[in-house]
Automatic annotation (TrEMBL):
Organism per entry: Aurantiacibacter xanthus
Segments passing through the bilayer: none
Pfam family, one: Phage_lysozyme
Reactions this protein catalyses: Hydrolysis of (1->4)-beta-linkages between N-acetylmuramic acid and N-acetyl-D-glucosamine residues in a peptidoglycan and between N-acetyl-D-glucosamine residues in chitodextrins
Name under which the protein is recorded: Lysozyme
Keyword vocabulary terms for this entry: Antimicrobial, Bacteriolytic enzyme, Glycosidase, Host cytoplasm, Hydrolase
Length: 192
């Protein structure tokens, strides 16, 4: 990056030549401004929200966890553990609790990365990010949702109101999704 115009502008504003200490301070400030932010990660509130609504369903007395059909469709996608879906998960799939926990950690990291990519440099608080990750974890819709566009535009109240539109599964309003979206909107607003 060519810093000459920045230094020239500062010299002009100060109406004096820059001292060595001024140059070091400006260089340091420019370097800090150019650093890429650390990748966003879902925080404890986001993890707790996902765990609360995904649940560890079908935990057997022997400690193993069985796959179950999607509540909205009664079939696909089959789910196991903390809401894991995908290839190899279907009727008869059984995992250990450790497998479920490891998959949750990996899925949360992947979804957090996708949310970070979708929102770009938009100012985002940790509660907002956590709510967006929970939403995306459940819907997979962060890249196409109006709430994402509203968040990026800085219309945080409008974005918070959009959560309530995502309560249908299998063509029906699902009470569990209504509760989840309310919790996500509350977290997004920083109210919990």
């Amino acid at each position: 990056m060519n810093r000459t115009p920045i230094f020239a502008a500062v010299r002009h504003l100060l109406a004096r030549p820059l001292r060595e200490a001024d140059v070091r301070a400006l260089d340091s400030a420019i370097d800090a401004a150019l650093e890429l932010p650390a990748p966003l990660a879902v925080g404890p509130a986001g993890v707790a929200l996902v765990r609360r609504f995904e649940g560890l369903a079908r935990l057997r007395p022997d400690g193993m966890v069985e796959a179950y059909p999607d509540p909205g469709t009664g079939g696909d996608p089959w789910t196991i553990g903390w809401g894991a879906t995908g290839p190899g998960i279907g009727p008869g799939t059984v995992w250990t609790r450790a497998q479920c926990d490891a998959r949750l950690e990996a899925d949360l990291a992947r979804h957090a990365g996708e949310v970070a990519e979708a929102i770009g440099a938009a100012p985002t608080s940790q509660p907002q990010f956590d709510a967006l990750v929970s939403f995306h974890y459940n819907t997979g819709a962060i890249a196409r949702a109006t709430l994402t566009r509203l968040h990026i535009a800085g219309d945080h109240e409008g974005a918070a109101q959009e959560f309530s539109r995502w309560v249908h599964a299998g063509g029906k309003v699902m009470k569990g999704l209504v509760r989840r979206r309310e919790a996500e909107a509350t977290l997004y607003r920083g109210e919990s």
